[in-house]
Design goal:
mainly alpha, 3 strands, single chain
């Protein structure tokens, strides 16, 4: 994983994005934010499990379905299974040590 700071590559309203093998953060101080970095590390693991390209295909299809379901961009984003896993486990800094393969399925 490579941490990069760039305020220009992050969509408005977000603090970071993961594009394997890069984690791109908006604010240089967030390099020290262990919770945010853990959230993004969870996405690294998810992307590896899906062999990267299929991850993004699933992610955007699920986002589209959630957008139809909730009719709200933020709610759609927060209810993507990958995001639900990452948000629910971001404070558990040991989560990735014990996480089983495909654990995101618990959040479908």
């Amino acid at each position: 994983m490579f941490l990069i700071v760039s305020r220009y590559l992050i969509p408005k309203g977000y603090r970071g994005i993961t594009l394997f093998p890069f984690v791109i953060l908006k604010n240089p101080l967030d390099r020290q934010n262990r919770v945010l970095v853990n959230h993004e590390k969870i996405h690294i693991r998810q992307q590896l499990e899906f062999l990267i390209i299929p991850f993004f295909m699933w992610y955007f299809v699920e986002y589209g379905l959630r957008l139809i379901q909730y009719k709200n961009k933020n709610l759609a984003y927060r209810n993507i299974s990958f995001e639900r896993e990452a948000y629910s486990r971001e404070f558990d800094l040991d989560y990735l040590k014990n996480r089983k393969v495909w654990d995101f399925r618990k959040y479908l």
